[in-house]
């Protein structure tokens, strides 16, 4: 039997190295990690209209790999590519709360939800003293009903709070009466069913206080006349034209408020109108009567102790109109022999009557002069036997 042949070292060493390399390659192939991808939002809550950065990384890292961003329904919302280190990012502007996933090859990331707060837009319009200001707005994205909270501020102080229903087109509106000058602002807030809130505020608006006089013709004249009527100043209707009737009502107001007896309006007049109260009767008896206040030079019609109307008048100069209480005993429909227009006599030849000139001070010969355009109305109020109180 022949002895075993010994292998040359030059053959053994290369064989061992070859086996080792093959073994290491098998180990690397077994240990290679499966593909993976991560996803993270820069902000998890945004307002509608804002954009959010979504970023992540793949492993093992590789450059130029395509990443798909999909939502919970599987719809693709964006695609991007990885950088040299396997990272990626993309900016999106979702219009509603959305859950995103990053997808790479067969790998899908954990979900990342971006919550979208509702966007509220509100505007304040027609801010005019004694008018109705309008509040209008809209909520996005579309909501299934709900209410918007509105807060009105004047000069920084809260005036009121109210809740307004959203319409089908996600709009809301309301109105309020502007009773005082000042800076107005409205804040609107909406909270959706997920508890996310959005808000907006209007620009500060202040009502104009324009100068007005005979010949003025605009919406501010009508607001002025409506306020004068509300305070009891007699007017035979309200419109947009500043007539002599308007001027007489302004004079009556200024007299009642012990202000300069002007027939025009400036900023100070608007402010006085905003804080004024109705005139008060001196005689608060039941039924109807007439009072003539010679100090303020106004006539008051009074029912059950409350002043109904106030008219600018002029009584007798130098005490020619005595104070006292009388009753209407004679009336003439039209002109009297002395050119008194629709006179209602209460004492001797003294009467309530229309006259072409009615100054702001006492200037008559003893009667109570009325502006011509008010004479027929007063004539109708001053029935036979009506009590007339005249005083200083």
CATH architecture field of the largest domain: Beta Barrel
Q: Helix amount, in percent?
A: 10-25%
Could you describe the largest sheet, including whether it forms a barrel? 6 strands, mixed
Tell me the total number of β-strands: 26
Q: Give the overall shape.
A: rod-shaped
Radius of gyration: 43 Å
Tally the helices: what do you get? 5
Could you report the average pLDDT, rounded to the nearest whole number? 92
CATH superfamily placement of the largest domain? L,D-transpeptidase catalytic domain-like
Q: Report the structural category.
A: alpha+beta
Tell me the domain tally. 4
List strands and helices in order, with pairings.
Elements (H helix, E strand, L loop, with lengths): L8 H23 L4 E2 L2 E2 L3 E3 L4 E8 L6 E6 L4 E6 L5 E6 L5 E7 L2 E2 L3 E6 L1 E7 L6 E9 L6 E8 L2 E9 L5 E7 L6 E8 L5 E5 L17 H12 L13 H13 L10 H9 L12 E6 L4 E6 L2 E7 L11 E4 L2 E2 L9 E7 L2 E6 L12 E4 H10 L5 E5 L1
Parallel strand pairs: 3-10, 18-26, 24-25
Antiparallel strand pairs: 1-4, 2-4, 4-7, 5-6, 5-8, 8-9, 8-10, 11-12, 12-15, 13-14, 13-16, 16-17, 18-19, 19-20, 21-26, 22-23, 23-24
Summary, kept brief:
With 392 residues, the protein is α+β, with helices and mostly antiparallel strands.
Word description of this protein:
- The chain is an alpha+beta fold.
- The protein folds into 4 domains: 36-116, Sandwich (Immunoglobulin-like), CATH 2.60.40.10; 118-201, Immunoglobulins (Immunoglobulin-like); 219-275, Orthogonal Bundle (Muramoyl-pentapeptide Carboxypeptidase, domain 1), CATH 1.10.101; 288-391, L,D-transpeptidase catalytic domain-like (Beta Barrel).
- It is built from 5 helices and 26 strands.
- It has helices spanning 9-31, 219-230, 244-256, 267-275, 372-381, and strands at residues 36-37, 40-41, 45-47, 52-59, 66-71, 76-81, 87-92, 98-104, 107-108, 112-117, 119-125, 132-140, 147-154, 157-165, 171-177, 184-191, 197-201, 288-293, 298-303, 306-312, 324-327, 330-331, 341-347, 350-355, 368-371, 387-391.
- Strands 3, 5, 6, 8, 9 and 10 form a 6-stranded mixed sheet that branches.
- It is rod-shaped and about 125 Å long.
